[in-house]
């Protein structure tokens, strides 16, 4: 006998309050749809912040995971296992790179990229010890570890967590002059989300990523693209950087890399960059474990022929059309790329609209007060996408009272 919604909400007393979930208790998922404990079907238009790009319960990915579970799940990196080299080689090839350092969560991969850049700065660029500087962007979100929140400008992410890790300089996202002015001879990297997901799906001005690439090349600085949320098909390309034909020095990947099954993250770069690590200088008990590698390899293979990306582009055009038809009285601005959108609301909070959408059968998430963000699974049926957007149009047209 499963618990009812009320019983589960009461049991939440023992769950730390670091999240404020919508009042829904999910028990099953299939494709773009989930079922709650009361048997209601809901369209998932968040996709676990892009961790579920391939939807819930994908048969191929689950098949690979089940087979691997029956064979070998964990060895630690004290030994080789027969899936690691394949995963790293195939992921490197997908990214047009040479080397992969596998981790588990996104935050760990960002930490790894920061450590990589500093070590590269001291060993390769020749920055004096202890002086390495990394340029980051205003409004960034790169995860929750202490070093990462050290360069966040979100008060919720930083309050009461000091003292913080030094060595970061923040400049406004999209302002190339500010980035240029912030780079000096001690700068080892510029860390950028090609699209700021948690910030509200903020797109940089056209040409910005190319200018960052050029700046990094000119000043011998690593361009690190955090594609944890924007990468692996979400925007209609393998990487969001691809929209500007930009190849960074370092990709940071996560979320969808785990196929919605296990946490898998990675730093992907050239051998002259990731080659700075020697045995014992960095590691993770679970990073690159056999289950993670099996699922990660299946995800890479899924993306190899470009059809997932193509579908995201085609459905993205439908999505953009539907977004442009949302009631103008309720919407101040809309940004979208592929199957990813941020909708700035005129009067209501994002949370309020999410609650209304939930009553209409759609899961979504707010970002920073007045923004609603949508990221349906890339496998969503066009008819379902249209259905979900019709619910949003109703919700925005009729407001909370009518629900
Ligand atoms: C989610 C996210 C992270 C952190 O990933 P976790 O797996 O939650 O640690 C880092 N960067 C970006 C851009 C993200 O969207």
Automatic annotation (TrEMBL):
Protein's recorded name: ornithine aminotransferase
InterPro entries per record: Aminotrans_3, Aminotrans_3_PPA_site, Class-III_PLP-dep_AT, Orn_aminotrans, PyrdxlP-dep_Trfase, PyrdxlP-dep_Trfase_major, PyrdxlP-dep_Trfase_small
This protein's record includes keyword Amino-acid biosynthesis: yes
UniProt key word Transferase: yes
Needed co-factor(s): pyridoxal 5'-phosphate
Listed Pfam families: Aminotran_3 (PF00202)
Keywords linked to the UniProt accession: Amino-acid biosynthesis, Aminotransferase, Proline biosynthesis, Pyridoxal phosphate, Transferase
MF terms in GO: identical protein binding; ornithine aminotransferase activity; pyridoxal phosphate binding
Catalytic class of the enzyme: transferase
Enzyme Commission (EC) number: 2.6.1.13
Pathway noted in the entry: Amino-acid biosynthesis; L-proline biosynthesis; L-glutamate 5-semialdehyde from L-ornithine: step 1/1
Family the UniProt entry places it in: Belongs to the class-III pyridoxal-phosphate-dependent aminotransferase family.
């Amino acid at each position: 006998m499963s618990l009812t919604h009320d019983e589960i909400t009461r049991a939440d007393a023992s769950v730390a309050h670091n999240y404020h979930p919508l009042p829904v208790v999910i028990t099953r998922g299939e494709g773009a749809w989930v079922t709650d404990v009361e048997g209601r079907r809901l369209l998932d238009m968040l996709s676990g912040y892009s961790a579920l790009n391939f939807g819930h319960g994908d048969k191929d990915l689950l098949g690979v995971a089940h087979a691997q579970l029956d064979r070998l799940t964990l060895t630690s990196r004290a030994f080789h296992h027969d899936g690691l080299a394949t995963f790293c080689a195939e992921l490197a090839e997908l990214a047009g790179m040479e080397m992969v350092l596998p981790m588990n969560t996104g935050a760990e991969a960002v930490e790894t990229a920061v450590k990589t850049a500093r070590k590269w700065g001291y060993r390769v660029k020749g920055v004096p010890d202890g002086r390495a500087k990394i340029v980051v962007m205003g409004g960034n979100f790169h995860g929750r570890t202490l070093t990462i929140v050290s360069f966040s400008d979100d008060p919720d992410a930083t309050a009461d967590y000091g003292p913080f890790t030094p060595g970061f300089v923040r400049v406004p996202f999209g302002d190339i002059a500010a980035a240029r002015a912030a780079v000096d001879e001690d700068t080892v990297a510029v860390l950028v989300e090609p699209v700021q997901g948690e910030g509200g799906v903020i797109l940089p001005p056209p040409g910005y990523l190319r200018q960052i690439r050029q700046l990094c090349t000119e000043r011998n600085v690593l361009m690190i693209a955090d594609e944890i949320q924007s990468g692996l098909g979400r925007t209609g390309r393998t990487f969001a950087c691809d929209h500007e034909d930009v190849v960074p020095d370092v990709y940071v990947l996560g979320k969808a890399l785990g196929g919605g099954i296990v946490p898998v993250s990675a730093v992907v770069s050239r051998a002259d960059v990731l080659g700075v690590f020697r045995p014992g200088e960095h590691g993770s008990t679970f990073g690159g474990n056999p289950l993670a590698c099996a699922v990660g390899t299946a995800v890479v293979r899924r993306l190899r022929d470009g059809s997932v990306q193509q579908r995201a582009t085609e459905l993205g055009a439908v999505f953009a059309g539907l977004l442009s038809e949302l009631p103008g009285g309720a919407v101040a601005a809309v940004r979208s790329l592929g199957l990813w959108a941020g909708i700035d609301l005129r009067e209501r909070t994002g949370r309020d609209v999410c609650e209304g959408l939930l009553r209409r059968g759609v899961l979504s998430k707010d970002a920073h007060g007045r923004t609603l963000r949508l990221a349906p699974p890339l496998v969503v049926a066009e008819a379902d996408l249209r259905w979900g957007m019709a619910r949003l149009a109703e919700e925005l047209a009729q407001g909370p009272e009518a629900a």
